[in-house]
Specification:
The structure is a single chain. Helix content is 71%, strand content 2%. The chain has 262 residues and is mainly alpha-helical. The chain has a two-stranded antiparallel ribbon with strand order 1-2. Strand 1 (232-233) and strand 2 form a beta hairpin. Helix 1 (2-33) packs antiparallel against helix 7 and helix 10 runs antiparallel to helix 11 (246-260).
């Protein structure tokens, strides 16, 4: 049963990355062609495939930073800034007096909209990095790593995805220019719930305490999903993050904390 859970999670990851590759191809094609309206519409939906399985990429050294680092993080660590958020800033060009996600750095400091040639470079780099992720999840190394981690690795993945929401999406810092954080939020929750669903039987098998724990966690996911649904969906679209009130953000924070703890 434990091996079946691991195998099912591996299949889920491969499916998401398998859908990510052509989605990124479409996004990059529109971005490189200067079709910004199309690229903007594809951006949050493309990211959802990545956000559901992000802890897998985070375990691969500098792959996640290349794909998904925000500008302030890349600058702080002295890294070349590439990936989704480099493309995002080109698609949602900030106002001249805007500040970056740290609330201090001018948005245009050491930055300018990418030229056609630079767009081609950034697009091709993202394609190459996503292909590297695809190759990894279809490798023996990935299978062996998941096997070694077992169901503990899956449950830790569920927690890590909730942490992604708590540390980046709640604040609105993740998709700073596009305001599409709720798409990432929803995808993180979906990925977390999928991982949990594969291990919940083992908790329930531990008797009344395990069954009560599963019921508590299921209730937490349901409450969080209900709160998210008040602001849209991945299918129909979410409101921009700036439209959320402080009360909305507090509600999300409370629900995430209540779910993550058990």
């Amino acid at each position: 049963q434990k091996q079946q859970a691991v195998d099912l999670y591996a299949a889920f990851v491969k499916d998401q990355v398998g859908q990510l590759v052509p989605a990124v191809e479409d996004l990059v094609a529109a971005y490189e062609a200067g079709d910004d309206d199309t690229a903007r519409s594809l951006f949050p939906l493309t990211r959802a495939f990545y956000e559901r399985i992000e802890p897998i990429a985070e375990a691969l050294g500098d792959l996640d930073p290349r794909i998904d680092y925000r500008e302030v993080d890349a600058v702080a660590e002295g890294l070349d800034w590439t990936g989704f958020h480099r493309i995002e800033k080109d698609l949602w060009v900030p106002a001249q007096d805007a500040l970056n996600a740290d609330g201090e750095t001018p948005a245009w400091q050491d930055w300018a909209p990418s030229t056609t040639e630079e767009r081609a470079d950034f697009g091709d780099l993202l394609l190459a990095d996503v292909q590297e992720l695809y190759d990894y999840v279809h490798s023996d190394d990935f299978t062996e790593t998941l096997d070694d981690q077992g169901i503990g690795g899956i449950s830790n993945g569920a927690i890590a995805l909730l942490d992604e929401v708590a540390t980046g999406k709640i604040s609105g810092e993740e998709d700073w220019w596009s305001g599409t954080d709720l798409y990432d939020f929803a995808a993180n929750v979906e990925g977390s719930k999928m991982a949990f669903s594969l291990v919940q039987d083992f908790a329930e098998a531990q008797g009344d305490d395990g069954a009560a724990l599963v019921a508590e966690i299921e209730s937490g996911y349901a409450a969080l999903e209900e709160s998210l649904a008040a602001h849209g969906s991945l299918t129909d679209g979410f409101v921009g993050y700036s439209e959320l009130t402080d009360a909305d953000k507090r509600e999300f924070t409370d629900l995430i904390n209540a779910l993550a703890e058990p």
